[in-house]
């Protein structure tokens, strides 16, 4: 029963784009009570416990208590993987390979109608480096970045003026405040990105540089 309900909830979230609020999930899963849905999600998520009771299917998007959940392995067409290889010295002082640990990193990609609209008007091209990453002859991969983050504690607005369309590499640079942003850097600014959000990003960048 636990597996059946988890798969049902997983399909419901995927039908909503891979990320959904609890209220949206409740509406998509009328056969289950709200408390049952919450319990099933928690039992299938390593975000609520060190070791999930069952398969680790769900992750919290904006932190526990936000009421927003996503499906693991759904959001990225190409998921980055990092293999960490550790070594130790045996009693004979010879180095031998230790356990290989597979770590998956998940990026929340809010492919809302608004983000998709901006992707189209900038022709699926990175607005910083101008990379256009083809998946096929008629499909490209690009990401939407909220310059002032939506989640706590920033609570940035989900509006076109706060959204930058970027390739995965530039997205990482923006997320981790590795670069400053200016209007001159932004190509094809058809969504009319506002200076106040660039200033927010740059202030975070300066704080990071000063604390290194």
Series of secondary-structure elements, N-terminal to C-terminal: HEHHEEEEHEEEEHH
> Which outline best applies?
globular
Mean pLDDT equals: 80
Strand order of the largest sheet: 1-3-2
Q: How many strands in all?
A: 9
Fraction in helix: 25-40%
Instruction: Identify low-pLDDT runs.
Output: 75-96, 98-109
Give a quick rundown of the structure.
The protein has 212 residues and is of the alpha+beta class. It is built from six helices and nine strands; from the N terminus they run H-E-H-H-E-E-E-E-H-E-E-E-E-H-H. The strands form four sheets. Strands 1-3-2 form a three-stranded antiparallel sheet.
Structure notes:
It is a single chain. The protein is of the alpha+beta class and 212 residues long. It has two domains: 2-71, Arc Repressor Mutant, subunit A (Orthogonal Bundle); 113-210, no CATH class. Helices cover 30% and strands 21% of the residues. It contains six helices and nine strands, in the order αβααββββαββββαα. It has helices at residues 2-15, 22-28, 34-43, 113-121, 168-175, 195-210, and strands spanning 19-21, 58-60, 68-71, 81-89, 95-104, 133-136, 139-141, 143-146, 163-166. The strands form four sheets. It has a three-stranded antiparallel sheet. It has a two-stranded antiparallel sheet with strand order 4-5. Strand 4 and strand 5 (95-104) form a beta hairpin. It is globular, with a radius of gyration of 20 Å. The model is unreliable at 75-96 and 98-109 (pLDDT under 50).
């Amino acid at each position: 029963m636990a597996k059946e309900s988890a798969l049902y909830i997983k399909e419901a979230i995927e039908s909503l784009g891979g990320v959904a609020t609890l209220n949206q999930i409740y509406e998509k899963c009328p056969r289950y009570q709200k408390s049952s849905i919450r319990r099933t999600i928690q039992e299938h998520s390593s975000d609520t416990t060190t070791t999930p009771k069952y398969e680790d299917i769900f992750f919290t998007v904006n932190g526990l208590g936000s009421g927003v959940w996503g499906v693991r392995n759904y959001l990225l067409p190409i998921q980055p993987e990092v293999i960490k290889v550790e070594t130790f010295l045996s009693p004979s002082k010879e180095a031998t390979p230790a356990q290989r640990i597979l770590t998956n990193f998940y990026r929340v990609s809010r492919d809302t109608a608004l983000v998709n609209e901006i992707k189209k008007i900038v022709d699926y091209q990175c607005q910083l480096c101008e990379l256009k990453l083809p998946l096929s002859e008629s499909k490209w991969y690009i990401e939407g970045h909220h310059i002032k983050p939506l989640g706590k504690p920033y609570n940035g607005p989900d509006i076109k003026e706060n959204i930058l369309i970027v390739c995965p590499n530039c997205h990482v640079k923006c997320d981790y405040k590795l670069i400053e942003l200016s209007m001159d850097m932004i190509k094809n600014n058809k969504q009319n990105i506002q200076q106040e959000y660039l200033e927010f990003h740059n202030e975070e960048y300066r704080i990071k540089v000063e604390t290194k």
